[in-house]
Amino acid sequence: MSFAKPLDDMRVGGDIDAQCTKCRRPTNHRIVSMMEGAVKHVVCLTCNSQHNYRPPVLPGTKKTATKTTTTKAKTATGKAKPIKSAKTTKEPKEPKEPKEPKESKEVREARKQIHDEEEQAFRLWGERKDGLSSLVPEPYSMEAVYRIDQAINHPTFGLGFVVKVHPPGKFDAVFERSFKTLVMDITRPRKL
């Protein structure tokens, strides 16, 4: 990919290679405006974003930003006067990843409580499975009614135990690898 472009070929509406601020890489751009013979604004032909022209950064080269620092010196009157110092080079900053919003204390406590309840239920699953040798688990059906500590055999989740019943028509069950809320006591309409 060649980034060289003859100067006499640059005009508004023409194409030029530039560093895209949205794509974060050199891409083809269309010149939107020029000022005193220099390209001012461009539109990326890849993502259609419009921005100031930035010359392309060749792959494998590092871009360094120059920044003028100012220091303050006191004058004879005691007031601070800015003095420009030499230019310093600074490495470009890596883009920051967006932060996830902070959770409120109530949400954190609710998550912890749910996590603790699930952890306790998984421990109980292991204990109940060991004591199940004489009982046969009932196949899960949405029409059936279940009670706490009843063993069920779900076609997808496998062996499980009813932990909590939520009237009307729902219950929590713990399985070997998951904790699910299932429905029960559903009456289906009869076919005529």
Q: What summary fits the major beta sheet?
A: 5 strands, mixed
The residue-averaged pLDDT reads 77
Report how far the terminal alpha carbons are from each other: 72 Å
Strand pairing plus helix content: what structural class?
mainly beta
User: What is the ordering of alpha helices and beta strands?
Assistant: EEEEEEHEEEEE
Count, helices: 1
How much helical structure, as a percent, in the residues? 10-25%
How much of the residues is beta strand, in percent? 35-45%
Attribute tags:
192 residues, mainly beta, five-stranded mixed sheet, four-stranded antiparallel sheet, 11 strands
Topology:
Elements: E1 15-20, E2 25-35, E3 38-44, E4 50-52, E5 65-74, E6 80-90, H1 105-130, E7 138-139, E8 151-154, E9 158-166, E10 170-175, E11 179-183
Parallel strand pairs: 7-8
Antiparallel strand pairs: 1-2, 2-3, 3-4, 5-6, 8-9, 9-10, 10-11
